[in-house]
From TrEMBL:
Taxonomic lineage from the root: Eukaryota, Metazoa, Spiralia, Lophotrochozoa, Brachiopoda
InterPro entries given in the database record: LMF, LMF1/2_C, LMF1/2_N
GO cellular component terms, semicolon-separated: endoplasmic reticulum membrane
Protein name in UniProt: Lipase maturation factor
Keyword Endoplasmic reticulum appears in the UniProt entry: yes
Compartment annotation: Endoplasmic reticulum membrane
Membrane topology listed for this record: Multi-pass membrane protein
Lipase maturation factor 1/2 N-terminal domain mapped to chain residues: 122-281
Length: 644
């Protein structure tokens, strides 16, 4: 079996970094999003302290237990986020902390916040972190300071991570086609993506200027990386797995440099580590056990070379054929999808069941190897190792079986064949987000211009309207595009989703408008520029604009050396609201935004400490805070303060 000790340690340390990003990014936003004076106060959805375990199961979050420590709801969220930051920091810098208990705590802490996060915390990357985080618990050593070698069953858990990565990649590619979005089928999605994505980076503006033929070729490559390449994850040829690793990592890096997708792409890269081994990380050649049967070793080497060459040749051939790639006389590349929706459906009817079969055989093979490896161990170690294989093998089979329900979402016929018992188990496991379906950008938004909600305030209904400027989302057309990741500004993100619908579909926007009308400091901290610093405006409204990138081509009307965007108003989005408007006040009372504060529990050591940290840090700019925490962790590691 390939050596994975270093790979596991790198994976665990990287998962700690992802948790660090997630907790620190959320911490600075808690008062404005979830506090008593925030946009969606958690007090409105949080159930009372549980009286029993069954009662706790109805809303499983540690926040319901923390009042026993004298913490109110916001202090409880602050405490959990701070504990998550400190624990992930410790796990990153110290190998002694890189164990099962630490990762169980990290998962439980993030799950507790997710449970009450409402619309601001229900993104696919939050769900992916919970699923990957749970598998990390199974992978982490029970006793980190004594576990210098890898247990055989760890290979089985690495396989589960590989399976999660396959489901993520394969579904992300397939859903773009099953959605029947004309931009994906026409290979023109990138003509709009760089401009219409939530928070583009400065490089996105330059990528948008590239010619259409290049963008269409890139979309073709995206489909190849997402749909056929993940099958290489399960090939017995190591070189193909390494090739797949670099394909997926390259794709994620391109997304990172053109779009601010917080920790999502970084988490995906961490999952890609399941395709590696220690020999690759250290640059050593793999250790091959000599095969004593004559010619078998030679035949196996030849078979691997033939398999690798044949697989890559087939990948190239079908890529050229299915996307009709042709080089024109001017050295540009013409590309066009040569298959139909009917062809795609037939492919899914065969490939989804095949993926399940491959998964069963591959998982069975990994489990068998783990058992055989355990049998080679001496004495008591053999028994302990075999017990571990049985326990974690059963867990792996259970996780794989449960994952088949979300995996088959992309093909209804196969989904219908999943046994009812597995569906029932998955339904119960969904409470803990142990296995979910994935697939971003099913349909390309912003075709014809990215919609953007611009909030304005004034003291007169007829004149003097001034715009509120958010930290990261487009507003001022001349402001440079930001670099935000790994921080996720959750209000800015939801403003992007709100622009795709109406304010009736996003009722939290009315809460936001009311907080601006009352000049709520916690909410104003989430906004970069408040045009009414002395006193809040009398009126608030929102308009819908369409934003477009400017051009670097001097021949085009959109050419500009000053502005990144140009925009045009499309229509009114949110009608004019006033804080003394009876209907608004009544609605805020119904939503419990206007409420009679409850008496806080008596101050104690825990609450005093949490409030002291909050007052010291405040709600500083998120990117700066997240990067500062990570930089400190790297510095501590470099100095070897908590080695190993």
């Amino acid at each position: 079996m390939a050596e994975l000790r270093r790979t596991r340690d790198l994976f665990l340390r990287s998962m700690a970094v992802i948790y660090m990003f997630a907790f620190s990014s959320l911490y600075v936003q808690i008062p404005g999003l979830y506090g008593d004076n925030g946009i969606l106060p958690v007090r409105n959805i949080l159930q009372k302290e549980p009286n029993s375990f069954d009662d706790f199961q109805k809303q499983p979050t540690l926040i319901r237990l923390l009042p026993k420590l004298g913490l109110d709801i916001q202090s409880s969220m602050d405490f959990i986020a701070l504990l998550g930051i400190c624990l992930s920091f410790s796990v990153f810098v110290s190998g002694y902390m890189r164990g099962m208990l630490s990762f169980t705590c990290l998962w439980a802490l993030y799950f507790s916040l997710f449970q009450v996060g409402q619309t601001f915390l229900w993104f696919q990357w939050d769900i992916l972190l919970l699923e990957a985080g749970f598998l990390t618990i199974l992978l982490a050593p029970a006793i980190p300071w004594k576990n210098e070698t890898l247990s055989p069953h760890d290979h089985v858990i690495f396989w589960l991570l590989k399976w999660l990565l396959f489901r993520l990649m394969f579904a992300s590619g397939v859903v773009k086609l099953t959605s029947e979005c004309p931009t994906w089928w026409g290979l023109t999605a990138l003509n709009w993506h760089y401009e219409s994505q939530c928070i583009p980076t400065p490089l996105a503006w330059y990528f948008h200027q590239l010619p259409e033929w290049w963008n269409k070729l890139c979309v073709s490559v995206v489909f190849v990386i997402l749909i056929p390449v993940p099958w290489f994850f399960f090939f017995p040829v190591r070189g193909l797995r390494i090739f797949a690793f670099w394909c997926e990592v390259f794709f994620q890096i391109l997304i990172i440099i053109t779009g601010n997708y917080n920790f999502f792409n970084m988490l995906t890269i961490v999952l890609c580590m399941s395709l590696l081994d220690d020999q690759y990380l250290t640059g050593r050649k793999p250790k091959y056990v000599p095969i004593k049967i004559p010619l078998v070793g030679l035949v196996w080497k030849v078979a691997k070379i033939v398999t690798a060459a044949g697989s890559l040749s087939a990948l190239l051939y079908y890529s050229i054929t299915l996307f009709n790639l042709k080089i024109r006389p001017d050295w540009t590349v013409d590309s066009k999808i040569e298959f139909t929706l009917s062809d795609l459906n037939e492919f899914l009817k065969k490939s989804v069941p095949l993926s399940i079969a491959v998964g069963i055989m591959s998982l069975g093979f990994e489990t068998l190897k783990a058992v055989l490896s355990s049998l080679k161990r001496p004495g008591l170690k053999k028994i302990v190792s075999l017990v571990g294989c049985v326990v974690f093998g059963i867990a792996a089979v259970g996780m794989f079986a449960v994952s088949l329900v979300p995996h088959t979402v992309i093909e209804k016929e196969t989904r219908g064949k999943i046994p009812p018992g597995i569906k029932a188990i998955h339904s119960k496991a969904m409470v803990y987000r142990l296995s979910s379906s994935y697939g971003l950008f099913r349909r390309m938004t912003g075709v014809g211009g990215r919609p953007e909600v611009i909030i304005e305030g004034s003291n007169s209904m007829d004149y003097g309207w001034k715009e509120y400027e958010f930290y990261y989302k487009p507003g001022n057309v001349s402001r440079r595009l930001p670099i935000v990741a790994p921080h996720q500004p959750r209000l800015d993100w939801q403003m992007w989703f709100a622009a795709l619908g109406t304010y009736q579909q996003n009722p939290w926007l009315v809460n936001l408008a009311y907080r601006l009308l009352t000049g709520q400091p916690e909410v104003l901290e989430l906004i970069q520029y408040n045009p009414f610093p002395d006193h809040p405006p009398k009126y608030i409204r929102a308009n819908l604009f369409h934003y477009h990138y400017t051009s670097w081509d001097k021949k085009k009307k959109r050419y500009s050396t000053k502005n990144w965007w140009w925009r045009q108003k499309k229509n009114d989005y949110l009608p004019i609201l006033s804080s003394d408007e009876d209907s608004l006040v009544q609605y805020m009372r119904q939503q419990n935004i206007i409420y009679k504060p409850e008496k806080k529990p008596p101050a104690n050591m825990f609450r005093t400490f949490v409030e002291y940290i909050r007052n010291m840090i405040g709600q500083m700019e998120g990117f700066t805070f997240v990067v500062s925490i990570f930089t400190a962790a790297v510095a501590v590691t470099f100095l070897g303060i908590f080695s190993p």
